[in-house]
């Protein structure tokens, strides 16, 4: 973190590697997001090169927080549901640090980062109790926070319901792939949310991912009982959460 309370976060996704300097007092970006297309195949080495290019473009010299769409424990990626399988077992922290001239880096799961940001600065900031954020994208990411403390790497998108993983049932990519109407897709999301609320009893669900931009088209169709609110930080949540993680918010 810089003296001005600024930190740098990078969100690594399937289509873009996006980063910015974040003002930790407000959770706002200090400048426009810098985006580099995610290399294909998105192998660890190729992604690390994109990360180095992005940080170079930003002229940022301090520590960097990064997200991965994977379970991350002690800086090591442990899963790769929707990313190149070569990430499994990769010490992402060591890789990114080396690509950035040996500076300190923190790596965490993408949904965990979004959850921390929404809990602290965004949609869930005024809710006391258990907050569950779900990101609906290529897969379903999850973050569980209790009074601001994250339970890392929850991976609820892989919870099997009636013989099918939740993210194979209700990710935004499934709506797209199968040409589902909002009504049809919301029925699947409702089933996932009802199952989750019966297991965890959160006070609120925060719905993130690109499809949360159209929340008025589908949140009113949901039939589960716990309130569902759209994410507020939208496409900056991962960046903001990654920047927050540097200051010790999380070290899974
Ligand atoms: C991965 C999670 C990730 C989520 C959203 C899932 O397939 O297993 O780690 O958070 O997708 O990217």
TrEMBL record:
Pfam families linked: ROK (PF00480)
SUPFAM superfamilies, A to Z: Actin-like ATPase domain (SSF53067)
Molecular functions per Gene Ontology: polyphosphate-glucose phosphotransferase activity
Keywords, sorted A to Z: Transferase
Enzyme Commission number: 2.7.1.63
Cited InterPro entries: ATPase_NBD, ROK
Protein name: Polyphosphate--glucose phosphotransferase
Protein source organism: Nocardia niwae
The organism's taxonomic lineage, starting at the top: Bacteria, Bacillati, Actinomycetota, Actinomycetes, Mycobacteriales
């Amino acid at each position: 973190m810089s003296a001005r309370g600024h930190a740098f976060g990078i969100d690594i996704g399937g289509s873009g590697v996006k980063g910015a300097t974040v003002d930790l007092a407000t959770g706002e970006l200090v400048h426009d997001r810098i985006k580099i297309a995610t290399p294909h195949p998105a192998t660890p080495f190729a992604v690390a090169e994109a990360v180095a290019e992005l940080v170079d473009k930003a002229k940022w010299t301090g520590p960097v927080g990064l997200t991965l769409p994977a379970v991350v424990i002690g800086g090591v990626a442990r899963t790769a549901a929707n990313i190149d399988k070569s990430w499994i077992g990769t010490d992402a922290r060591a890789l990114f640090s080396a690509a950035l001239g040996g500076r300190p880096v923190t790596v965490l799961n993408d949904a965990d980062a979004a959850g921390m940001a929404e809990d602290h600065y965004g949609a869930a900031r005024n809710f006391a109790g258990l907050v569950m954020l779900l990101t609906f994208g290529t897969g379903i990411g999850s973050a569980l926070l209790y009074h601001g403390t994250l339970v890392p790497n929850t991976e609820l998108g892989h919870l099997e319901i009636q013989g099918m993983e939740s993210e194979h049932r209700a990710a935004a990519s499934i709506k797209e792939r199968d040409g589902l109407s909002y009504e049809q897709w919301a029925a699947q999301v409702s089933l996932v949310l009802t199952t989750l609320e019966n297991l965890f009893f959160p006070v609120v669900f925060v719905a993130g991912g690109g499809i949360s931009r159209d929340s008025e088209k589908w949140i009113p169709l949901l039939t589960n009982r716990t309130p569902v609110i759209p994410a507020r930080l939208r496409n900056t949540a991962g960046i903001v959460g990654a920047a927050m993680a540097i200051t010790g918010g999380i070290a899974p």
